[in-house]
């Protein structure tokens, strides 16, 4: 079977769905291809900082989520080796923690049902040159379907097929990994709406309320593989933490909803691979983790993916509007190039800030300990987090559907 689409997005994660919503807002239909049978919410919850909420606002989705989740204005970091407790104040409106599934569904329900095609794994694709900068993409799916499209956006996550095709720098393993999940207290957990972190030289753990009954918790350690059965992951975390982290944290882990547990090695793309890498070729580009996988130390991979979506939507939208509601392949290459120019440095900066923040929090070298104890929370963390959190990716262009009869346009 061979199909034709204006825009194909590979991956129905945060980046893919948000990009499809951004394009829909500017009048462009996109087909999202997802290899799974439904929306995947691995990791169960995530934190979103003010930059992410501005992007969600631009996408017209924030109003559905804000009433469901209370922001955390601050957190406390306890260094269990020294006993020191630091208060960390978050900028502007605080940070909200939400269920991933709720975020994905809030994005997906903005789209027409036929614009997400599940069980559709991309297995190969070719770029078909059209002369000049213009190109078309021929996407081949596992089920034998071929889809030709004028624009192809790889939102296919950390091990992106499209990023490999573009020749982007290989991922680097940070040497750390994280177990995360939900804890459920049917009678209420009684914690305030604040982050509580605990750390020593090698491990870091923490939790934050999602609501009165559920907490999102994590345990991050150096280099150890903790995947496997959920019970085993929970047991391993408890074993490693019993001696050093406080009983309130252990109690949270004991209340884990085992079906929510997951383990992830923490990978990132080196910032120079983003600054100097080929983030697009003709009408093919990447967004989200496919472009800028990062360690989760500032909780911003999802936020940066939402920013990508708005910026990409803006550039494609402007081209679409200027061309009288047409996707003109030659002009799309320029729109995508402008998107890459706008995102490259921001993405590299967020990856770097996240890495430095994690390295300082979990390194056990003497100079890292020195910097952590003397400067990290006093000066450095506030500065890094402001760089990442206090950022506005801008708005989408306004489009008047009345003035533009999209259905009658043919190219
Ligand atoms: C431990 C941990 C904690 C984190 N915490 C936070 C946090 O608190 N806040 C935050 O903002 N970010 C956080 N992140 C980062 C965040 O999870 C990611 O940045 C975000 O999920 C990226 O979204 P994405 O859509 O780019 O990729 P993904 O969510 O990975 O989605 C990619 C999608 O593409 C699909 N796909 C892949 N290959 C193909 C193919 N060949 N064909 C079709 N479909 C395909 C996949 O099935 C998947 O659905 C964390 C990450 C980790 C590892």
Automatic annotation (TrEMBL):
> Which residues are the signal sequence here?
none
**Annotated ranges, domain FAD-binding:** 6-352
Q: Does the keyword Oxidoreductase apply?
A: yes
* Record bears the keyword Cell inner membrane: no
**Record-linked SUPFAM superfamilies:** FAD/NAD(P)-binding domain
Supply the Pfam families for this chain.
FAD_binding_3
* Molecular-function GO terms, alphabetical: FAD binding; monooxygenase activity
Q: Which UniProt keywords apply?
A: Monooxygenase, Oxidoreductase
Q: PANTHER family, alphabetically?
A: FAD/NAD(P)-BINDING OXIDOREDUCTASE FAMILY PROTEIN, OS04G0423100 PROTEIN
Q: Which family does it belong to?
A: Belongs to the 3-hydroxybenzoate 6-hydroxylase family.
What is the protein name for this chain? FAD-binding domain-containing protein
> Which species expresses this protein natively?
Populus trichocarpa (Western balsam poplar)
